[in-house]
Each structure stands twice: as C-alpha cells, then as structure tokens.
Amino acid sequence: MKALLLVDIQNGFCPGGNLPVPDGDKVVPVANRLIDSGKYDLIVASQDWHPPGHGSFASAHPGAAPFEMGELSGKPQMLWPDHCIQGTLDAELHPALKSEEIDLIQQKGEDPGIDSYSAFRDNDRDSSTGLSDFLEDQGVTDLDVCGLATDYCVKFSALDALEMMPGVRVRFIEDASRGITPEGVAAAIDEMQAHGITVINSSDALRE
Q1: Which CATH class is domain 2-51+83-206?
Q2: Could you tell me the mean pLDDT of each successive run of 10 residues in the chain, 208 residues long?
Q3: Residues designated as active site
Q4: How do beta strands 69-72 and 75-78 pair?
Q5: For residue 52, which of 77, 20, 86, 18 has the smallest C-alpha distance?
Q6: Cβ 118 vs Cβ 153: under 8 Å
Q7: Could you tell me the pTM of the whole model?
Q8: Domain ranges of the chain
C-alpha cells in the first residue's frame, strides 16, 4: 500500500501568499503528475489551519517582527507573519492542485499555544493529529513525502512518519518540494538522509 503525502501546498506558501516559499508554486505541476500517475493507492495532504492570533505569529507578540526568534508557551519559537488563517484564501490549497483526487486533508496548527510543522504532531511532540493512525489503518507500507517547505514542515513530517510508523518506508521527493533557503534545504536533506529517508525525484517515483 503506497501513499503520497502532500505537505502544505497552500496559497499562503506560494507567491502572493502571506508566507511565500520561493518558487513554491512550481511544486504544483509536479504534484499533479504524481497524483495522476496511478502509482499511489492513497493520496493525503496536510493543511496549515491556524486560528486568528496564533501564538507563532509575530503580531501576537507586541514589539516583535516576523522571522525573529521569540517564545511560545515558554519555549523558543520562530515568529512568522500571520498566515494560513482558518477560512481564508491564504489557507486554501493551491487552486491548480488536483485536490479533488486527495483522499484525506489533515489540518494542523489549530492550537494557539503550540506550532505544528509536522503533519503528524505538534512541535512539542505531545499531541498527535491522528494521521499516523489513519495511514496505519489503511495498511500503508510506503510513504512518499513532498511539498512546502522542505526545511520546515516537509522535513518534520518525513522524520515523524519514520518514527511514528515503524516499518514504513519513507522517501522525500526533492523536485516536488521547495524550501525557504538553500542552506536550510541542504541541511534538511542531510538530516533526513541521516535518519534513513531516501531522497528521490518525481521521475524515480513515476518510473516504478
């Protein structure tokens, strides 16, 4: 049972969004080719789904600016621009993404007191979204992960998949993903590989 996880391919992380990843929209046609390929038994997506005033927003911290390190619930927190607020256009999946083919959309980041980069659990690793249980219930044995952004939500989702679903083969699809900085992307790929995640391109996935 092979599954594809599309991480946060939302308007907010694409050009014109509130927290754009450089060339974030370039992942959409690659993701659509993977969706259309027939290579996957199950297609799931994660969706950042923050309430207004989320504690990871710089606007929730008087005097703070986006991309500064701050504090949330007593722990260090990168402060972001307001983004992917529930019910807004910014939070919607990219309109060109073939979302009608997605079997499950897993929302995350709803707790105002803790950020959630991973599609599987919050950053404190205390509260699970339930995605790992869903995938295990479906009998998933192989999981390919891609989306936005490589150096944050994609990396943490892939690492959590590996840890929370022992025995499942996890791969990262590099050309179906984009990151915030080249240095961050390189470090994220090194970390994923160090944990046993295989790095592939979409051509590899489509060839199988």
Answers
A1: alpha beta
A2: 98 98 98 97 98 97 96 94 98 98 98 96 92 97 98 98 97 98 98 98 93
A3: 8, 108, 153
A4: antiparallel
A5: 86
A6: yes
A7: 0.97
A8: 2-51+83-206
